[in-house]
Amino acid sequence: MVGSAAQRTAGPRIDPVTASVIQGALENIAVEMGFKLMRMSYSSIIRESEDFGAAICDSVGRQLCECSKSTPLQSGPIPGYVKGIQKLFEERGHRFAPGDVIIHNDPYRGASHSPDVGFCMPIFDGETLIGFSMTTAHHLDLGSAQPGSMGLVECVDRYAEGVIFRALKIVDAGKLNDVAWQMITDNVRMSDLVLGDMEAQIAACRVGANRFLELYRSYGAETLWGAVEDLLDYSERLMRSQIAKVPDGVYRATGHIDGFLDSADPALSMLPIEVAVTVRGDDIAVDFTGTAPQLEHHAINMPFVGTVDVAVRLMLRTILLDSAEFLNVPQNDGLFRPITITAPRGTLVNPIEPAPTIARATGGNRVADTVMRALAPAVPQSVSAGTGSLRGVAFSGFLEGQQWVHLEIFEGAYGGRYGKDGMDSVDTLYANTRNNPIEDIESHVPLRVVRYEFRDHAVAAGRWRGGVNSVKEIEFLCDGSVSAESDNHKVAAWGFDGGAEGYNSELILATADGQRIQLPSMLPTIQVSRGDRLVCIGGTGGGYGSPKSRDPQQVYQDVCDDLITVEQAAQDYAVVIGDQGVDLERTRLFRNAPPARGE
Fold it and tell me: Over 293-323, what HEC string results?
């Protein structure tokens, strides 16, 4: 028997103290799941970068909580995974049973993209299905057309992206599906690491299922579901109250993705993302009409459910419910009831199967960034200027007859925001993963990090400057290959309210024989030799506000920190710096001087 949402909401509501206690318990369950997954995982992309998700959903797929240690791009899509699984089960006439574990990574049925494999464990109380415990994680390799699961930017269709698991019972009523497990073993590179990570996901799901069942039995069905409905309604009310403060209207913006800058076909580069945000009372609608058509044979397309919806919801939640003001808002489906998202089919943001989608990450970040840009005039003190995009790179090769694969996420940078400079060299927007320690890289794969530092003199000027980004240079200690998916090589982070644009990204192959080869932002697999180095220069965030209104002492501190030069201080900020620091009198005269003719 499956308990319906309607049956639950018919029960009595409970006191807010009990609801708060239950909310804390739900959050702790998700956090415990996340720690279990991190500490059992084999690959650094999960263990160190925390590219995973963990959440509990009810029996109709509504998210009740998510792990605060995970990335929004992993936990956010989980309701879509669950609903995709449920739809496929319904179509096939399949039923959930106690002890089942379902594996799923179909990007056209809820998954964010195919390397983010989900494991879903139905939770039963006796014969009653009461919810789902679920984890997602980015895997090193799924047997795609080239090694790794980043940088597969050119492929014929989704079938070239690797193995697709479409709501398959990998554990059936407690018994491992040996045939399916063997199929995975035989069809992925680095199978020991991949299977080890999958086992960690299943173990984390089991922890979540057991803890949720304990909570359910401790409080009883009426109390627990009463608290759930109250918490969903509370999150909805909170979101609606903030939407209602935004002036009614339609707010528009256009963003661009680099795309394939090295292509002779102009339709493959500078791809527009058109956003119209409509606010009416306490409802908000986001429409993508006018966005570029989907690309055939290029994997930059973004699943509407799992990537685009997550990017939009994350951005609206971030702008309207800043955690600095609202603290711990229950992260559940109630937050998104006031939000409607539409996109024409056949576009980058709503592709038609089987268009490839594996390289959707940087495009989705541009979606979130453009939503923020659209709303900036309406809520200027709640947004940042444009973000410098992150980059994903896959390194691979053979050493002593053994294949190795390493996935690395290179940081982005936030733009300045009202009252604060942009955050430096962090993973941005819906990615929110961590940087990978140099010691971990060098102890597991034949790579050496020879340089990892902030960029010099590449800060977007503003009253609140843009965030600076890093330079990371990695040397191959054996022959191998490399591929990448990134952005910002041509499209710079936008400045706001008089702030300057950010500085662009670069990707350079410095060969052992002294050549320096500029590589495109979307890089299919290329072969490299021992001693070659990949130089990754990150794009920086945009500036916020007029640079001439920045505190001269802050400008001087930026010079001392080697973020800008004395010449940049004068040119960009009209701040004169001498041997003893800021020359306040000359700065005052310089800032008040009339502009030269033609300026």
Answer: ECCCCECCCCCHHHHHHHHHHHHHHHHHCCH
